[in-house]
Design brief:
Layout lengths: L7 H12 L3 H7 L16 H8 L7 E5 L5 H8 L3 E6 L2 H14 L3 E5 L12 E7 L10 H11 E12 L12 H7 L10 H7 L4 E7 L15 E7 L3
Parallel strand pairs: 1-2, 1-4, 2-3, 4-5
Antiparallel strand pairs: 5-7, 6-7
């Protein structure tokens, strides 16, 4: 492995190596499909469903970041969206592909680090992230915002679900500097409403709220401990 820092990208990759869970970690995470992880259920996020019901979102071309086993990608596809769904884990995408075949869904699954994606300017109507952002280290925050902004068409929408700071699912209460002092994301960073508003200040805020809990019998996924937010790229 190259260990010289000669440019900004080399610096980012070095910091990634210190903090990011590697692909083998996520492959192992998704190996046991019966271990009771809530978001292993094959249901779309309740907030995502609400965006379409309220007609805040309409079918279009979608980029999903960190798609996992594909539950939200399947929902987009059912609504006739053209879907590119990205995840680092080969194991999760195998599961997602199986689910898509069962439904006859045409989804393009991509195994890649999201920061290695080659995306044309303004390629997507919607960028969706359910549970990826809180695993992004602070030094990648600007790269993440640039990725979302580049991917979206003017007037396109960006939606996210992420850990509430100190919430029921964890959500580490750390400053950006503390992440490097501890050399750990502590299982995933937590956010406040104000932090989300500040991070995504260059987008128009449409809604920031806590995810609504859903009963096990519900046809949507909803748990305590997550923020949901919807933003719009300025034209």
């Amino acid at each position: 492995m190259k260990e010289s820092i000669n440019n900004y990208e080399d610096l980012l990759e070095m910091l990634d190596a210190l903090l990011r869970e590697p692909a083998p970690f996520w492959n192992e995470f998704y190996t046991d499909r019966d271990k009771g992880v809530p978001f292993f259920s094959n249901k779309p996020d309740e907030n995502l469903v609400s965006y379409f019901e309220k007609e805040w979102l309409r079918p279009g071309k979608v980029l999903e970041l960190g798609c996992g086993p594909g539950r939200n990608a399947l929902y987009f596809s059912e609504l006739t969206c053209e879907v590119d769904a990205v995840d680092l884990s080969e194991t999760s995408l195998k599961w997602a592909t199986e689910r898509a075949k069962e439904k006859g869904a045409d989804i393009r699954f991509i195994q890649k680090n999201i920061f290695d994606l080659e995306i044309g300017e303004g390629s997507y109507d919607i960028v969706y992230d359910s549970g990826c952002f809180h695993h992004i280290a602070p030094h990648r925050k600007m790269s993440y915002i640039d990725l979302v902004s580049k991917a979206l068409k003017p007037g396109g929408h960006f939606a996210i679900t992420c850990f509430i700071e100190g919430g029921a699912l964890g959500g580490a209460d750390l400053s950006d500097w503390d992440v490097y002092r501890k050399r750990s994301l502590m299982g995933g960073l937590g956010f406040t409403e104000e932090k989300l508003r500040t991070i995504f200040k260059d987008f128009k805020e449409l809604e920031i709220r806590k995810m609504n809990a859903a009963a096990p019998s519900s046809n949507v996924f909803g748990v305590n401990g997550l923020w949901t937010a919807l933003f719009k790229k300025n034209k």
